Amino acid sequence: MSDERRSEAERLIEENEGARAYAEFLRGFYDRLGDEPLETGSGRVEKFVNGLFQKEGESVVSLRPFRPPREARPTILAAETSTKESRLPSNERRFSVLATLGAETEDLVVRALKDEDTRQGRLYVLSESPEKRAHALVSFPKFGLDLVTDEEGLCTFELPAEVDLEQWAGAQAVVRRPVAMRAVGPGEKVTMNLPTGDTLLGRREGETLEVVLEPYGPEETASHLTITTPNRSARLFRLGASSLLERGISPEAPLVLRVYE
User: Fold this and answer.
1) Domain extents for the chain?
2) Concatenated DSSP letters for 91-156?
3) Which CATH architecture best describes the domain 178-260?
4) Which of 78, 80, 99, 197 has the most CB atoms around its CB within 10 Å?
5) pLDDT per residue as tens digits for the range 28-37
């Protein structure tokens, strides 16, 4: 890499929160790779790398607490991620790490942080592939918490008051990616044939959207639906055979449906 490109990359990491987060993930990846023996013909490194980057098409991925094999470098993700001035004293860290989780089958890391300024949580889905972090549904089953990221893999959420730091440290999660997506215009009817075999039927009239899931078999395999309109966070719904109504939608606003297993 030329000196000019290197300086450009360093400047991007310093100024952009997403770039900083991904740089930290890559450091962890190469730390793990560096721990693998490099004996000729062993094939262990190749197996290690293939294991991290296989199964690109998985729509449901399980995550466990991430345990780096050696002393991790000090995180830079906890640096300020907003141009707004913090109300905390300058000698106090604004962000604290609640949980870091990783997938065993691919290059996917999820971090949950606490913003000591706003008392809210921040969730980051980190991956080399933009498709893996955008519009991801991250579920913490033991906490009853379902979070949907934006296009950059970020979600701000209210922290559950009953979940303590020890519970966060041992948290497990599931990441779901959309198996189908559909834009719905004003007055449009929708038929979405899902990879699961189920069919999602919908109708948009005025300020109302009505959808219903027709299962392929005795049990529904599609589990969640998000409805996204401009300048609003995605609204999450559980799918079932009963009709689902969403009201108060601007009649002319673009609308996108995403379905998850």
Assistant:
1) 3-70+92-176, 178-260
2) TS-SEEEEEEEE-SSSS-EEEEEEETTTTEEEEEEE-SSHHHHTT-EEEEGGGTEEEE--TTSEEE
3) Sandwich (2.60)
4) 99
5) 555 555 555 5
